[in-house]
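Supplementary notes for students who missed Thursday's class. We covered one full example, reproduced here. Read the sequence, then the structure, then the short commentary at the end.
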Amino acid sequence: MPPAPHSADRASQWIPALLAVLAPCFLFPTPARLVAALILLGVWFGATRPSGLIPDTPLTRPLCALLVLVLLSCWTTFDIRFSLGKVAGVTYGVVVFWGIVRWTRQSASWQISMWYMAAAGGVLGAVGLFGTAWATKAPWTPIFTEALPGWIRGIPGAESGFNPNALAGTLILFVPLQWALALKKELTPWTRLSVVGLAVFATGVVLLAQSRAGVLGLIVASLAFSAVRVSPGPRFHHRRWLFGLASFGVVVILIAFVWITWESATSMMRRAVWQRALTALSDVPITGMGLGTFRRVMPEFYPILDLPVEEDIAHAHNQFLQTALDLGLPGLIVYLLILLRTFQAVRANLWGRPAAERNALLGLGAGLLAHLMFGLVDAVPLGAKAGLAFWVLLALVFAAPTATSADSRLSRS
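Structure (token representation):
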């Protein structure tokens, strides 16, 4: 008879239910809901010792440091009630990361999780299609957007509809994975058609959002995905590999430079926001100003004189600058370390596995790269509800089964 499953393994089967129960408490927080959520987490940790919820990953220490900085930000913010949503959002994102890694590893369901992730991108695209406050940046967009019913309205934090830029910045986390799964050779014709349709739909919503940063992210991610996918693997001659990597880097830098320069020249408002964000950061470089407070602090202490009174600048329009404003330069360092270790995990596990798994893992890495390119001129701030997809993507990278072949060992050297 096979051995009985360990109690920790049995507990891991309930992690999706735990995350679902915690979701309303963290995504729509009140002090009472947060206390209830923390009590539930405490009971879970006590009942599932020694493994609990926290798996062993290279991100364990950076994530713990991030939570400490988030806790300190509660002291930094001008009003904890104003920052509560973002504080709860980051905390829940970390819990989701740990929970998905633990559940996926124990249930050996990484491949299935990839399909869930791709389907979630389609759901997000559909929600965005009927819940976004569409902007008119191109003359052709009203033909589509005015025909869309605004069925999804009144959600806390997005009462008048979702921001189209935030929608695009989140969707591009999913799109490369959807296209990567469509490359799987074993798919039936109908399954392949469904996956391609899902990818086309999500890509179309990104285009409809008219986010130039989102389109830039997808272009760079597509170049990176194609370059790595056609490379012979870790045995590729190191000089040719370095030359190819340098060439790709030059192309990315040129595209980013031209795009950002054009974006800055055509958007004096964005440049003014960056200038004031840098000034604010120089005033509070160590602690930051607290999660989500920039939208209230800037008009009060760093005003843009010709800014209309009704204009709401929600963030600094740069992912890295916004992170530093929220948590200080230590928070930015931790955030960069999380990104670095994630890309290292993609590289370490990319080779020595079946092509379908390699494409899926590469799709995750390309999605993260697209999101970061988007972050050069826009942001989905830490703690935002849409930012939950970021933590799910990181979790799937670190939950990937370890490649054990010689090629995999070589790629780690």
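Commentary. Residues 1-7, 405-413 have pLDDT under 50 and may be disordered. Residues 254 and 267 are 19 Å apart (CA to CA). If anything here is unclear, bring it to office hours.
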